[in-house]
Amino acid sequence: MAAPPVPPRHVAIVMDGNGRWAQRRFLPRLAGHKQGVESLRRCVRACAQRGIGVLTVFAFSSENWNRPAEEVSGLMELLAKALTREVPQLSQEGVRLHFVGARAGLSDKVRAGLELAQSQTAHNTRLVLNVCFNYGGRWDIAQAAAQLAARGVPITEESLDRALALAHVPDPDLLIRTGGEMRLSNFLLWQAAYAELYFSERLWPDFDEAALDEALAAYHARERRFGQTSEQVQACA
After folding, report:
1. Residue at 173 is within a domain
2. What is the pLDDT of residues 99-128, one digit of tens each?
3. Which of 18, 64, 140, 171 is catalytic?
4. Does residue 211 contact residue 202 with C-beta atoms inside 8 Å?
5. In this structure, is residue 123 part of a structural domain?
6. 161-204: per-residue pLDDT in tens?
């Protein structure tokens, strides 16, 4: 009997489609974001059950500040409530939380909540959950370069890689985007250099365990060559 496929170490997801999910049901956009939290809860549990060690999700981009003020305010309030409600359960399930992104523009309440959630889950080892909030891939590269320049460290691929906001985890093996769009939208521009890309038509609130398994099946069907030929990869298998 063939051995089961090795799961990707790191899955990243652009959780797109919350607003459209709500609009199709004649609901306010924030209702879609609330349902998106439920979908994230399912996905975190499913990833842990499937042996995936790192899950990184795009929760709020640096460009999302341009959305209507009411929606942005609602998202901030939703984050604050989710931290209070979800963190104890996540910690119980062995999830370690990291919030990745600029802290500028966030309220003192939200910043304090992020720090508390990270400290409360720092000892967990089953799954690392990176929540990219107020994050952009260009911001990440720029802040890493600024760090190195301020310290007088030569900027190389290796030094820049170590200064990025996700230096604590390996690069993603699989990057999923829901909602039918086919672009990265400034997400993990450096880290996704060799990620397998998978685009799902499902809106994020409808992305369930079966949809995750479809993405994983597509991932396992691909040959990852990293610049080598197919013959070289097969010879090393």
Report:
1. yes
2. 999 988 788 888 888 999 999 999 999 999
3. 64
4. yes
5. yes
6. 999 999 999 999 999 999 999 999 999 999 999 999 999 999 99
d(CA 159, CA 145): 9
Encoded amino acid at 181, one letter: E
- Residue 192 sits at φ, ψ, to 5 deg, of -90, 15
User: Within a domain: residue 236?
Assistant: no
For 164, other C-beta atoms within 10 Å of its C-beta total 20
Task: Based on the residue annotation, tell me whether 134 is a catalytic residue of this protein.
Answer: no
Q: Is the pTM for the entire model greater than 0.90?
A: yes
Write the CATH number for 212. Answer: 3.40.1180.10
Enclosing domain of residue 161: 10-216
Nearest to 172 by CA among 4, 5, 14, 40: 14
Catalytic annotation present for 108: no
Q: Which helix (H) or strand (E) holds 213?
A: helix 209-220
In a domain, 4, yes or no: no
Those residues with Cβ within 8 angstroms of residue 80's Cβ, 6 or more apart along the chain or in another chain: 109, 110, 113
User: Catalytic residue among 16, 140, 171, 173, which?
Assistant: 16
Q: How many domains does the chain have?
A: 1
The span from the CA of 41 to the CA of 8, in Å, is: 19
